[in-house]
Structure formats: structure tokens, C-alpha cells
Amino acid sequence: MMDEYQIPRERMIALLREHYKIRDAAVLRAMSEVPRHLFVPDALKSQAYKDNALPIASKQTISQPFIVARMTELLELNSQSKVLEIGAGSGYQTAILSRLAGQIYAVERVPILVREAQEKFQRFNIKNVTLACADGSLGWEAHAPFDAILVAAGSPTIPQPLLNQLKIGGRLVLPVGADQKTQKLIRVTRTERNFTTEDFGACAFVPLIGEHGWQ
Predict the structure, then answer these.
(1) Could you tell me the CATH number of the domain that includes residue 197?
(2) What are phi and psi of 177, to 5 degrees?
(3) How many angstroms separate the CA atoms of 103 and 130, rounded?
(4) Closest by alpha carbon to 108, among 42, 143, 152, 159?
(5) How do residues 149-204 score in pLDDT, each as one tens digit?
(6) Confidence (pLDDT) at 1
(7) Beta strands 166-176; 146-151: pairing state
(8) Whole-angstrom distance, CA of residue 155 vs CA of residue 143
């Protein structure tokens, strides 16, 4: 069934595929199926499929579609993956992950965002997400180790608890930067003996607040 946002959503997918060279067909399919306009404030619905981040409650943001797609693609998920998401925010990125992985454990520190995201997960009948209100920089030790960890907030360094909670062969994707305004998108892969790090260029996220993030 077509909705009034179908054409803008298709344009967004075309931009991701053709301009940004997102290659993972499963990621593009998930982003074509999840209605981003239902994760933004009512006043911003008309902007939901534009190529930029948008403000949500408590001075947080819903990430630019390109960044959602790129970070998700870098995780290299499959239907068995156990994923930790830090900074669930509106729940949009979580909903994308829920279509690609087996189980998602999501952490968000702002109580109102947790409540609103929970309501959306119920509305969309998303059953494979467990959401907690906590300090995401600590990870979620009880459910570790994880195949993949996504951090949707900028950290001054790579939080040690997240490295510890990564499976061998697992991937951690996060923005890292000494400045709260700009970061680099980093992918860390855990090997048998240590960690390898790749840099995927500049990005800008709200700060990761917490014991192993910004104070």
C-alpha cells in the first residue's frame, strides 16, 4: 500500500545507492521499509526523508539517513547477529537493526526517549529489541559478548567496556573525536590477539555522555 511518503522514501534510497554507494541490499531494503517520518517530531515529518539529521526531544538528534546506512553496512550483520546499540534515541536506527539482526540490546540514557521508542517498537510489532535506560558508555555486560556494537554518539576515545564486550571477529562502529562537535567514523574489529581500526571519514554526532564518554 502506498503512503504519502513513499516517493520521498524512494528518493532517499536512490541517493543512498547512487550517490553514497551503499551496496548492502539488505540495509537498503530495511531503510525502504521503516517509515522514518514516524520517528521524527510531527512538525518535521515533511523533512523526514531529506539527507540530514533532525532534532528530537532532549537536544538529541535522529541521524542523517546516509550515516544510518553507512554505520549499519559497516556492522556486516546477519540474521544470527547479536547487536548492542548505544544511544537508541528516537528508535529509528534500532528499528533498522531489528530487521537485519537476530537480537538487539539497545541503551538510551534519556528516559522520555526510552518511553517513546518503546511505544514505537510496540506499534511496529518489533519483538527482537530489549531497551534499557542507562549509561551506554558502560555497554551491557549482562548480554555480552556481542557480534556487533553501534554507538550513535561521539566519544572522546573508544570506551574500554565496549571493546571488552565485543566477540572475537566482532565489529564496533562509532564516532570518535577529541572535539564534541566533530568526529571520525571508526570501525574496530576484534581479532584473536588485539583490535584493528579503520577510519571512514568525518562525521558529526551529539556527545556520548557517561563514565567512559564525555562527563
Answers:
(1) 3.40.50.150
(2) -170, 145
(3) 8
(4) 152
(5) 999 999 999 999 999 999 999 999 999 999 888 899 999 999 999 999 999 999 99
(6) 52
(7) parallel
(8) 22
Judge whether 101 lies within some domain: yes
Residue numbers annotated as active site:
63
With respect to residue 166, please indicate whether it lies within any of the assigned structural domains. yes
In a domain, 18, yes or no: yes
3-state secondary structure of 68: helix
CA dist., res. 187 & res. 199, Å (int): 7
List the domain range (segments joined by +) for residue 35: 6-203
104 is a domain residue: yes
Beta strands (DSSP E) in 16-145 are 54-55, 61-62, 82-86, 103-108, 129-133
Beta strands 146-151 and 129-133: pairing type? Answer: unpaired
How far apart are alpha carbons 213 and 89 in whole angstroms?
17
Residue 113, all three cell numbers:
526517549
Query: Per the structure, how many domains does the chain have?
Result: 1
Pairing of strands 146-151, 82-86: parallel
Cell output for 128: 527482537
Farthest-apart Cα atoms in the chain, separation: 51
Residue type present at position 164: N
> Are 209 and 177 within 8 A, CB to CB?
no
CB-based contacts of 86, cutoff 8 Å, min separation 6:
107, 136, 137, 139, 149, 150, 151, 152, 153, 162, 174, 208
Nearest to residue 24, comparing CAs of 57, 70, 63, 64?
70
